[in-house]
Design a protein that fits this description.
The structure is a single chain. The chain is an alpha+beta fold. It contains two helices and four strands, in the order ββββαα. The protein has a domain of 49 residues. Helix content is 19%, strand content 21%. Strand 3 and strand 4 form a beta hairpin. The chain is rod-shaped. It binds zinc ion (ZN). Zinc ion binds next to loops.
Amino acid sequence: MARANEVIGEAACTCCGRDTPVKQMGNGLAVMTCPWCGTKTQAFTERGNALIRAKIKGQAAPAPAAAPAERKPNPATPGQKQGGGVFDTLNSLFA
Ligand SMILES: [Zn+2]
């Protein structure tokens, strides 16, 4: 965990595209103020924080900000052969 106001990386300015240092504020959210054009990009939510951090250059693999959790198939879903549970027995009665 980076300390407050510590530079955590460098990302392209959202306005002019030049390299801009990205800092972490005391609340843990990322902020970047472009020294070239003066544009300030500040995260106010965890989503914005993740989006700014994903733009930091030189990272191994930036994680997607809001990737939906992978849905696993429900083992109790009808239609799949199961091992003779009580609901399988009931379903077979009404089939
Ligand atoms: Zn800029």
